[in-house]
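Practice problem 4.
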């Protein structure tokens, strides 16, 4: 029986470094734009109230969040690349039974290999 040859899919490849960098820059710019808007709202929305503190906290915290997300990269996206190597079937040993009823009543044989010749168990 022949096994199917696994062909790597283009979608299993990781994102190119240039595309990943562009994505991180866009995400950073968007976060910093939101920070500027929060800063402006903090200064110009009258009368001052509890929402002024919300805008101030957002304007103070967003730079840290923007830098952390920009430096994180795409580690959160999990990609699994398939191996391009063709898998070959191993030849079957003639002593292996083809059907389960060919196994004798004593059960399967167990082989124990010891490196130093003594039993550690």
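Answer key:
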């Amino acid at each position: 029986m022949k096994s199917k040859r696994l062909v790597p899919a283009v979608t299993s490849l990781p994102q190119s470094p240039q595309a990943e960098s562009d994505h991180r820059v866009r995400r950073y710019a968007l976060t910093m734009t939101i920070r500027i808007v929060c800063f402006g709202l903090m200064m110009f929305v009258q009368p001052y109230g509890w929402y002024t503190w919300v805008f101030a906290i957002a304007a103070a915290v967003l730079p840290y969040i923007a830098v952390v997300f920009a430096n994180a990269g795409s580690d959160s996206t999990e990609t699994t690349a398939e191996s391009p190597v063709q898998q070959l079937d191993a030849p079957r040993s003639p002593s292996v039974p083809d059907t389960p009823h060919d196994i004798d009543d004593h059960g399967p044989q167990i082989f124990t290999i010891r490196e130093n010749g003594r039993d550690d168990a």
